[in-house]
Amino acid sequence: MTVKYNAAIIGCGRIAVLFDQPDQDDKILTHAHAYSLEPRVHLCAMADIDEQKANHAVKVWGGTPYSDVRKMLGQENIDIISICVPDENHEEVLDICLSYRPKAVFVKNR
User: How many angstroms separate the CA atoms of 36 and 62, rounded?
Assistant: First the structure.
């Protein structure tokens, strides 16, 4: 039996979703593309304060769009989180995420 992990992305900009496309298998440039190629991961949700960005991201990569991180974390059963917001917001978003006790969080250290 293969374990399936639910993943979510917070911040729907370049490194999260925009640098590549789902059919571009030769290079993995985004978190969404990496998750989409891993059979043990289901990309279940994406959040961005810009609702249009979140909607666009899920049209390309799948999942449910959110404009509120807390709402997403409260409604979805998320195991893995990629924090792809601007650097100055990493600590705040990480603190929010950790309060929901995910199994893993990916965030760039300054």
Answer: 9
pLDDT 10s digits, 36-69: 999 999 999 999 999 999 999 999 999 999 999 9
Alpha helices in the chain (DSSP H): 31-37, 51-61, 69-75, 90-98
Q: Which residues contact 53 (CB under 8 A, 6 or more apart)?
A: 12, 13
Torsion 81-84-85-89 (CA) sign: positive
Query: Which superfamily does CATH assign the domain made up of 6-84 to?
Result: NAD(P)-binding Rossmann-like Domain (3.40.50.720)
Judged against a pLDDT cut of 80, whether residue 35 lies above it is answered with yes
Specify the pLDDT at position 24. Answer: 75
73: which 2 tokens?
């974390």
